Amino acid sequence: MAGGVVHFEIPADDEGRAREFYSSAFGWTISAMPEMSYAMLMTTPSDETGTPSVPGSINGGMFRREGHLTSPLVTVDVDDIDASLERINALGGSTVQPRQQVGTMGWAAYFRDTEGNVIGLWQNAAPESETGAADSGDDIGA
């Protein structure tokens, strides 16, 4: 689904307070991932892989507000993060965080658009049967 919005992220100054707020306000299930300094926000029923089972819905994440990542973000699915960042930079955008591996799931990056907004990019990892081996990129999930 290249080009689709597939994820959102909410930065927080007080992660515990923010988890309590979103859980109480919307009934979201929140799963802390301390090894990544991150929390998964489950806003909708999902299958065993974490993929939303309700068409058109997405889940998200939460992290400590810092650096360039200070306001809520949407994340767009792309086939190739590096090529997308090259195109974005050529169109007047800029790279905020280059491609980083997220566990075995795929890769994430952030860019600033021509209006100053920071947006995320996501590239799924190919199933191991297609790649034969894991990518050796920077792993933010380890």
Q: What is the strand and helix layout of this fold?
A:
Blueprint: E1 5-12, H1 15-26, E2 29-33, E3 38-42, E4 60-64, E5 73-77, H2 81-90, E6 94-102, E7 106-112, E8 118-124, H3 128-131
The value of Rg in angstroms is: 15 Å
Strand order of the largest sheet: 2-3-4-1-5-8-7-6
- Annotation field: number of helices: 3
Number of domains: 2
CATH superfamily of the largest domain: 2,3-Dihydroxybiphenyl 1,2-Dioxygenase, domain 1
Q: Count of DSSP E strands? A: 8
Strand content: 35-45%
Derived from helix and strand composition plus strand pairing, the structural class reads alpha+beta
The biggest sheet, with number of strands, parallel, antiparallel or mixed sense and barrel status, is:
8 strands, mixed
CATH topology annotation of the largest domain: 2,3-Dihydroxybiphenyl 1,2-Dioxygenase, domain 1
Shape assignment: globular
Helix content: 10-25%
CATH class of the largest domain: Alpha Beta
Flag low-confidence runs. Answer: 130-142
Quaternary state of this entry equals: single chain
Mean pLDDT: 88
* Terminal residue distance: 27 Å
Task: Tell me the series of helices and strands, N- to C-terminal.
Answer: EHEEEEHEEEH
What is the CATH-assigned architecture of the largest domain? Roll
Short key terms for the protein model shown above:
2,3-Dihydroxybiphenyl 1,2-Dioxygenase, domain 1, disordered C terminus, eight-stranded mixed β-sheet, 142 residues, alpha+beta
How would you characterize the overall build of this protein?
The protein has 142 residues and is α+β, with helices and mostly antiparallel strands. It has two domains: 8-68, 2,3-Dihydroxybiphenyl 1,2-Dioxygenase, domain 1 (Roll), CATH 3.10.180.10; 78-142, 2,3-Dihydroxybiphenyl 1,2-Dioxygenase, domain 1. The protein contains three helices and eight strands. The chain has helices spanning 15-26, 81-90, 128-131; strands at 5-12, 29-33, 38-42, 60-64, 73-77, 94-102, 106-112, 118-124. An eight-stranded mixed sheet has the order 2-3-4-1-5-8-7-6, covered by helices on one side. Strand 6 (94-102) and strand 7 (106-112) form a beta hairpin. The radius of gyration is 15 Å and the shape is globular. Residues 130-142 have low confidence and may be disordered.
